[in-house]
What we know:
5% strand, elongated
Amino acid sequence: MATLIGIKVQYVREMAKRKKESEAVLVKHRHCPICGVPIGLDKQFCGDACQAEYGKASKKRRTQLYVFFFIYLLIFFVFVVAPLLFKR
């Protein structure tokens, strides 16, 4: 039993050494939020096309937020405020 444990410990140590030897060096980077291409840390987008696409998407998101907020207020007014105002 002791030799079996010794063999496992030796195997684990060997695997740890191999892992250290085979680790690749990664350059610090970030990814374009639109297409996912790796870019430098100083850039936010990979190009003008992705930046324009991001602008369109954020404008669409903002418009949807305003529409949902208006719908929420409308529903709130119809079901909560209006019944309180127009009690008989």
